[in-house]
Design goal:
This protein is α/β, with parallel strands linked by helices and 278 residues long. It is 43% helix and 21% strand. The chain folds into two domains: 3-147, HUPs (Rossmann fold, 3-Layer(aba) Sandwich); 156-276, Rossmann fold (3-Layer(aba) Sandwich), CATH 3.40.50. It contains eleven helices and ten strands. The longest helix has 29 residues, at 57-85. The radius of gyration is 20 Å and the shape is globular. This is Universal stress protein.
């Protein structure tokens, strides 16, 4: 039985994370863990403003804490009710310390983490992907399914392949962890440089591997700038397409100066992304 973690901000509960996680756990008879990142430094409103604006500042701060605790309890109840309705094997973790470190620790002991692309784990409206998401994806210890704001059942997949081991690793993890989704119609997309031929990298080896996991996959090989060409081609697909890609991990300096393909696709907030790196 696989262990899937659904990561939640209890103050901004993601219905989409819940829907994708429940569907995947049900499809694969997996144990689903709802991880609620209740960072003790995170409130729905600024505690400093609450204390500054109120005559009885400490009583109003207590009220804020009680309101937030109630909101977080409701989120846990919603998760538990959905899991029970789907007859899932599930559990709940309430992590109270620094959200990023807590979720990275949880990922060590998970097969897959499901998380909303728009998560910030703070009360501010950061443009996706927020710093929290960038840092988590770069250092996660298991594959991550980044989901859009609206749930759409997965009906097909696109596998991004550039001939590098990291892209093959992502396809492997997708096949091993989500066999139900990997059995759906699949397209392998490869973008070559303008001076390269249009052959699939390691053509014989890749197709031999794919025949065992995605034997009906179709292949698209084109020339162009991958950073522009891949998003453009994916826009031809609707939100029922799951995109598989690897190689998120980079040095901190590199992540600062050049965004990853995952960053670009997350910004679209349209497709679920299965991201795995070695």
């Amino acid at each position: 039985m696989k262990k899937i973690v659904a990561a939640f901000d209890g103050l901004k509960f993601s219905e989409s994370t819940l829907a994708y996680a429940v569907a995947i756990a049900r499809d694969h008879n997996a144990h689903l863990v709802g991880v609620f990142l209740n960072d003790m430094t995170y409130f729905s409103r600024s505690p400093y403003r609450v204390m500054a604006d109120a005559e009885n500042s400490y009583r109003n701060l207590e009220t804020l804490e009680e309101e937030d605790a109630g909101t977080r309890r409701q989120a846990v109840d919603k998760f538990s009710a959905a899991c029970s309705a789907a007859a899932l094997n599930f559990s709940v973790h309430k992590d109270k310390y620094i959200a990023l470190q807590e979720l990275l620790h949880e990922s060590v002991y998970a097969d897959l983490v499901v998380i909303d692309a728009a998560e910030t784990l703070n009360r501010y409206a950061d443009a996706p992907p927020a710093h929290f998401m960038r840092d988590f994806l770069a250092d996660a210890h298991c594959p991550v399914l980044v989901v859009p704001r609206t749930y759409v059942p997965v009906r097909s997949s696109v596998l991004l392949y550039d001939g590098e081991p990291s892209s093959v690793y992502a396809v492997k993890m997708f096949s091993y962890l989500l066999p139900v989704q990997s059995a759906l119609p699949a397209e392998v997309i490869t973008i070559r440089e303008s001076d390269e031929n249009l052959h699939l990298p390691d053509n014989a080896l890749m197709k031999e591997f794919m025949k065992r996991h995605h034997n009906k996959a179709v292949y698209t090989v084109a020339r162009g700038d991958a950073d522009e060409e891949i998003p453009a081609r994916l826009r031809m697909n609707d939100a029922s397409t799951l995109v598989v890609l690897g190689a998120y991990r980079r040095s901190a300096v590199s992540r600062f100066f050049r965004e990853s393909m995952a960053d670009r696709l997350i910004r679209e907030l349209k497709w679920p992304l299965f991201i795995a790196h070695q």
